[in-house]
Amino acid sequence: MQTRTVTRLWQQERQLWTGDSARFARRLSPACLMAFPDGAILRGAEILRSLSAAPRWQAVEMHGQRLSEHHGAVVLAYRARARHAGRADYDCLCTSCWVPRDGVWQMIQHHQAPLAA
Fold first, then answer.
1. Is the CA virtual torsion 22, 43, 39, 15 positive or negative?
2. Are 107 and 97 spatial neighbours (Cβ–Cβ below 8 Å)?
3. What is the reported pTM?
4. CATH number of the structural domain spanning residue 27
5. Mean pLDDT of successive 10-residue segments in the chain (117 residues)?
6. Any idea of the CA torsion for 61, 92, 82, 116, to the nearest 10 degrees?
7. Are 9 and 105 in contact (CB under 8 A)?
8. Shortest CA distance to 29 belongs to which of 42, 19, 39, 15?
């Protein structure tokens, strides 16, 4: 995989934490599944509805980034520390799966596993 593509995927992953919901909508496959620590498992439009009502993260740091590619799909794995104003940092392990669709990379899976403080 080209370094430029890898860099772009990591940038897109970061922007999905902190960017607006319109950016998220462009990068999210309608078939995407997300599993969150509160027990919610959401798909496609459910994800977009839940995000439009939720405050966006102000900043995220990613550490220990790993990448695996198989049959054109790319899995990103990393530790994240996200911040909201006036709240404790949120630390978690994440995985996301991205696939190319019509020349655009789209997320088809995301999972967050919180880490104890």
1. negative
2. yes
3. 0.91
4. 3.10.450.50
5. 89 89 85 92 91 84 96 96 88 97 94 88
6. -120
7. yes
8. 42
Owning domain of residue 77: 3-114
> Helix/strand/coil (H, E, C) string of the chain?
CCHHHHHHHHHHHHHHHHCCHHHHHHHEEEEEEEECCCCCEEECHHHHHHHHHCCCCCEEEEEEEEEEEECCEEEEEEEEEEECCCCCCEEEEEEEEEEEECCEEEEEEEEEEECCC
**Tokens standing for residue 64:** 């220990």
Report the domain count for the chain. Answer: 1
Plot region of 22 (φ>0 → left; ψ -120 to 50 → alpha; else → beta): alpha
